[in-house]
Amino acid sequence: MRVRPTQDAMHNASALTPQETASTPAVDHALALHRAGQFDRAELAYRAILDAQPHDANTSYMLGVLYLQRSDVERAIECFDTSLALRPDDADCLNDRGIAALSRGDNEGAADFFRRAVECAPQDALAHCNLGKALRRLLKPEEALNHFQRALALDHDLFEAALGSADMHEVLSSPHDAVAAYEYAARYAPDDLRVLLGLGLTLNAVRRHAEAEACFERALQKEPENVHALFGIAFATDGQLKFEDALVRYQRALEALPDSPTLHNNVAFTLTCMSRYDEADHHLRRAIELTPDLSNAYKLLGMSELRRGNFRKGWEYYEYRKTTPSGLRDYPKCEMPEWRGEPIEGKRFLLTREQGAGDQLQFIRYASVLHDMGATVDVWTSEELAPLFARVRGVNDVLTALPHGAGYDYYCPMMSVPAWLNDDAIPNAVPYLSVDDTQVAAWRARLEQAAGSRKKIGLVWAGNPGHYLDVYRSAQLAALEPLASVGGLAWFALQKGAPETQLDGVAHRWPICALGQLLDSFYTTAAVIQSLDLVITVDTSVAHLAGALGKPVWVMLPKQADWRWMMSGERNPWYPTTRLFRQQVLGDWSPVVEALRGALEAL
C-alpha cells in the first residue's frame, strides 16, 4: 500500500471550491507554498489561517494532506478528523483519512473511511481503488477485485487499479485473467518492477514460460539480485525443459536464499527430471529440515522412495500429496471417515478415484484386496472407466457421482490403500480387468481379417499433450519407422487425438491400420487389446490398461521415467507381462527403437 503521490493530493488542494473556502491572499499564499514543496513555510501559513478561522474545514484538510506527505501520520489524522467533524461528507478528506489509517496499519478503519468516500462520491475512481487496497489487506479478494474493476471502469488509465486487479486475479487462482490484467497494466508502466514480476509469475502459471523468462530477464536488468526474479526465471527455464540452464539459475537463486525450502524443492524436481535422484533426495531432505510440514517435498520424496522400491517409506511420504495445494483442491472431502488401516470385516467401503485414468487403472486392483479383507467395496470413478471397473473381482457397485456418505463406514482414495496395508508386497496377479468375450471375439475376427496370419501389434506413440514432460514422454511416429522393416507383423494404431495425423506421413512406407476413431471408450480399447498379440506404447493409460488385462505390453520410457516404472530393469513389479525399453539419453529414442526392432525380430 502506498500513500498517493504528491500531485494527487495537491490536485485536491487546487480544486477547493469558492463556496467552501473563499480565495484570499492568505489561502492563495499557503497553497502556493504547499505546491512548491516548501512544507515548513506552508505549515506556518496554514496555522496562521486556522488561528484566525479555527472552523475552516478546507484549511484543516490541506494541513492534514501536508502532514501526510511528510509521513507525520498522527498529526495528519488529527487535522482530517477536525475537518470531517465540520464537513463529514467530504469525499477527498475521507479518502485521505483512509490512507492515513492504512499507513498506521488500521486496515478495518481504512476500509470504513474508503467506503464512506465511495458513498459520497460513487464516481471517484481513486476512492474505489483505495478501498480495493484496504480490502486486499483484509484478505477479502473478491470484494477487492470488484472495487479495482470499478475503478478501472471509471478511469481506464488508473495504473494502481490495473495492478490491483491483476493481483486479486492471482490470489483468486484465475491466472489467465491475471495475465490479461498485468498485460493491461504493462501498457502504462511496461518497466515497472511489480508488473514485470507479476506478469512473469502468472505467465509461468499458464505455462507461457518463454514469455515469463523474458519478463524476469527485464526485471533482473533493473534489479540484478531480486530474488523473486531469480526464482521466477529459473522456474520459467525449467518449464521449457531446459534443465541444465534451469539448474544453473536455481543455484544462483539458492545463493541469495540458501534456506528457502521452496527453492530446494524446485531444485530437487529439476534434478529428478535429469535422473539425478540422489542429489534430488538431498535437496528434498533439506527442504523438509527447513519446513517440516512441506507437503510437496514429502510427496516428491515419496515418489523417489517408491521408484527405488522402498515401498513402506514411499507410501508413508506419498500420503502428503493430499495436502499439497493441488491435493487440497482436487481430493474430495467425504462425509464418512477416511480409512487408516482399521479392520474392515463386514464394513461398507467406498474406494474413490484420483488423478488420471492410468493411475486408476493401476490401483483398482486394491478393490479385490479390500474385498478379501471382508469389506463390501463400492468404487467411485469416471463414466469412461465405470464399465471396466464393474467387472473387477470384489467390486460391489460402481458410482460415477460421489455419494454423500450415507451407509458407508469408510472411504479411501485408491492410491492411499497400500499405505495402510502394512505390506510391501504388490498384488500383481493379472488379469484383474476383463471385457465381455463376445466383444473380444468380434474384434478378434475383424483384426484377423486384416492381419491374416501375421502377428497383430498395437501401437501408441504419443501420450497426454498436457503432461509437463510430454515432449519427452511422447515420440514422433516417423522415429519408430525402423520397426516397419520387421516382417510378419500387422500394425494397428491405438493412437487417439491429434498425433493420429502422423499416420499420413508414413502411410506409403509403413501400412498401419488406424483404429483411433473407433475406440470410443476404455472398454472398447480393452476389447481391441485383448484381440492383439502385443501392444507397444509410450507411457500412457494404454500401458496400464494392457498390463491390467495381462496382455504382453512393451513400454517405451524416457530417461526420466515415472516412479511406477522403477529406476532400472526391463521388468516391473506392477505388471508381470510388461517389458520396459528405457532411454539412455533424454529425448533420444533411436536406441530404444533399435532394441524394439531386435525384440520384434526375435518373436
Automatic annotation (TrEMBL):
<feature type="repeat" description="TPR">
    <location>
        <begin position="57"/>
        <end position="90"/>
    </location>
</feature>
<feature type="repeat" description="TPR">
    <location>
        <begin position="91"/>
        <end position="124"/>
    </location>
</feature>
<dbReference type="Pfam" id="PF13432">
    <property type="entry name" value="TPR_16"/>
</dbReference>
<dbReference type="InterPro" id="IPR052943">
    <property type="entry name" value="TMTC_O-mannosyl-trnsfr"/>
</dbReference>
<dbReference type="InterPro" id="IPR011990">
    <property type="entry name" value="TPR-like_helical_dom_sf"/>
</dbReference>
<keyword id="KW-0802">TPR repeat</keyword>
<keyword id="KW-0808">Transferase</keyword>
<protein>
    <submittedName>
        <fullName>Glycosyltransferase</fullName>
    </submittedName>
</protein>
<feature type="region of interest" description="Disordered">
    <location>
        <begin position="1"/>
        <end position="23"/>
    </location>
</feature>
<dbReference type="InterPro" id="IPR019734">
    <property type="entry name" value="TPR_rpt"/>
</dbReference>
<feature type="compositionally biased region" description="Polar residues">
    <location>
        <begin position="14"/>
        <end position="23"/>
    </location>
</feature>
<feature type="repeat" description="TPR">
    <location>
        <begin position="261"/>
        <end position="294"/>
    </location>
</feature>
<dbReference type="GO" id="GO:0016740">
    <property type="term" value="F:transferase activity"/>
</dbReference>
<feature type="repeat" description="TPR">
    <location>
        <begin position="193"/>
        <end position="226"/>
    </location>
</feature>
<feature type="repeat" description="TPR">
    <location>
        <begin position="125"/>
        <end position="158"/>
    </location>
</feature>
